[in-house]
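Appendix B. Extra example for self-study. Work through it before the problem class; the solution is given directly after the inputs so you can check yourself.
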Amino acid sequence: MELTDISVVRSLMEKHGLRFQKKFGQNFLINRSVPERIAEASGAGGEDGVLEIGPGIGTLTKELCKRAKKVVSLEIDEGLIPVLGETLGEYDNFKVICEDVMKADLELIVKTEFAGCERVRVAANLPYYITTPVIMRLLESGIKFESLTFLIQKEVADRLCAAPGTPEYGSVTVAVDYYCDREKKFNVPPGCFMPAPKVTSTVITLFPRKIRKYAPKDEKMFFKTVAGAFGMRRKTLVNALSAAFAVPKETVARSLEECGTDPGVRGERLSTSDFVALSDALGNNIEK
Ligand code: SAM
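Solution. Structure tokens for the complete assembly:
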């Protein structure tokens, strides 16, 4: 069965009484080479386990099953479960779990499902409505993923890879840089999906670092500093952080001075290392 064939997609949906659910971000791939290229970009192969988010009718899943030792997919839409039984029935290395990725116990799933695998990778054509929360949930889970390959809106991919001082740079850039190296792979035009979204998409791979690049004294303080700095974008750092931490402006100004950072600067100019130094200094000065 050619799952990227529009008439196959239509007849599967009809047969199972399904409609594309906008609320679940259902834009299925209908281009033959894109799922193959995503599976290749994910690096899945050999003894790898792959956790997929949102298999849909199984188009990308099938390519992952051909390459990896085991594929476990989390799908929120229970209507799609019998479809997957039909489209992926021939793959005994596939399992679908009908759960919301934002609520599932990912650690338990990885531990139990991929016990016999050497590495665990993530691959997904992510639903657009929860792209960033899903990525952050996976990164913050503490699970040691080898890589995470996502098809996401180009605009979001640009944000994840942005350099300090550019308009795309924001708290999510810093948060992802805190954990991972990033590699943009290729763009996917709207016509490769059914229904077609309005915007271009990009395949991106995140590689969580095995050796930490950044070591703030207090991780919570670091993330609070980043959120505070970007929370009020039009304010200078001194004003934004004094409001975020409810401390006098002088405390923030002193911390900035200790790091050699201009107190009049805006948050979007600071690199991840700058934020680490600043959160350490703020931590010291707020405790005093
Ligand atoms: N992988 C398929 C493809 O490439 O054709 C479908 C991708 S579609 C963009 C997103 C998929 O994620 C849909 O199957 C949707 O039902 C599922 N989904 C949406 N929200 C989800 C959630 N919170 N947890 C798990 N799956 C979700």
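Self-check: The radius of gyration is 21 Å. If your reasoning did not lead you there, revisit section 3.
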